[in-house]
TrEMBL record:
UniProt xrefs under InterPro entries: GTP-CH-I_C/QueF, GTP-CH-I_N, GTP_CycHdrlase_I, GTP_CycHdrlase_I_dom
UniProt-listed Gene3D superfamilies: 1.10.286.10, 3.30.1130.10
Coiled coil ranges: none
Taxonomic lineage from the root: Bacteria, Pseudomonadati, Pseudomonadota, Betaproteobacteria, Burkholderiales
Descriptive protein name: GTP cyclohydrolase I
Keyword Chaperone: no
Class of enzymatic activity (EC top level): hydrolase
Keywords recorded for this protein, A-Z: Hydrolase, One-carbon metabolism
A biological process from GO: tetrahydrobiopterin biosynthetic process
Superkingdom to which the source organism belongs: Bacteria
Catalysed reaction equations from the record: GTP + H2O = 7,8-dihydroneopterin 3'-triphosphate + formate + H(+)
């Protein structure tokens, strides 16, 4: 029996194809800013890393870079694969952070603000860095789950660790915090520099994008909204 005929049918199929088949089978979206962790089986991330490395090497070859002899770029394909899968786009491939929720025993119903939380992301269009900060305001009610302060930063990191556009990133984050804590109101303000606008393209160095999402009480109560915005220290 030759080697090819001894392989199981799925062997030799790129792992990205297997993962995509599962996603399609489940009717799940897999846009750049979607998390796909639940469709990746144990051990497959290592295979995905090898697959991406090979494709990155092909890109470097097409860029006519002599990676065989250039000591600086010899391992660049591997580094890029590790950076995308294990670091900067970890929010696509990794599980959501564990968030311990506590009952609101003291029936807290006062405004809480956390920030600035560092934003590290990349734009979906050019994969250029998006670096900034954000502030989160929560108006709890007696049924709101209390979560540890650090969890706001962990949830932010998970959402931002994907190719994003700022408008969608902030909505994804707001949806996630609403789902975890069920507050009366939620406000998120984000301010970020987009390197696709400074390093390349229009090469505008100082402009930033600021956007906000207001939910519940922050939408209906102008006084609360003003209080939140006035309490964000040193924005800009
Ligand atoms: N709305 C929005 N636009 C973004 C964001 N990040 C980057 N962009 C912009 O998205 C656009 C990218 O699409 P194109 O216009 O097709 O790209 P391009 O031809 O390389 O454009 P230039 O950047 O103008 O050279 C650029 O204008 C970026 O500045 C974001 O978070 N939100």
């Amino acid at each position: 029996m030759n080697q090819a005929s001894s392989l199981a049918p799925e062997e030799g199929v790129p792992v990205s194809v297997k993962i995509r088949e599962r996603l399609n089978g489940a009717g799940r979206r897999f846009f750049a800013n979607d998390n796909i962790a639940e469709f990746i089986e144990p051990g497959e991330l290592a295979a995905l890393l090898d697959e991406v490395q090979a494709k990155m090497q092909a890109v470097l070859d097409s860029l006519v870079i002599d990676t065989a002899n250039d000591h600086n770029t010899q391992d660049t394909a591997r580094r890029m694969a590790k950076m995308y899968i294990g670091e900067v786009f970890r929010g696509r491939y990794g599980e959501a952070p564990q968030v311990t929720e506590f009952p609101n025993a003291a029936r807290l119903n006062e405004l809480l603000i956390v920030g600035p939380i560092t934003v590290r992301s990349a734009c979906s269009h050019h994969f250029c860095p998006v670096i900034g900060k954000l502030w989160i305001g929560v108006m709890p009610n007696e049924h709101t789950n209390v979560i540890g302060l650090s969890k706001y930063a962990r949830l932010t990191d998970w959402i931002m660790g994907r190719p994003q556009i700022q408008e969608e990133a902030i909505v994804q984050l707001a949806d996630l915090i609403m789902e975890k804590t069920r507050p009366d109101g939620l406000a998120v303000v984000m301010e970020a520099s987009h390197f696709c606008m400074s390093w390349r393209g229009v090469r505008e160095m100082d402009s930033k994008m600021v956007n906000s999402v207001m939910r519940g009480a922050f939408l209906t109560d102008a006084t609360l909204r003003r209080e939140f915005l006035s309490l964000i220290p040193g924005r800009g």
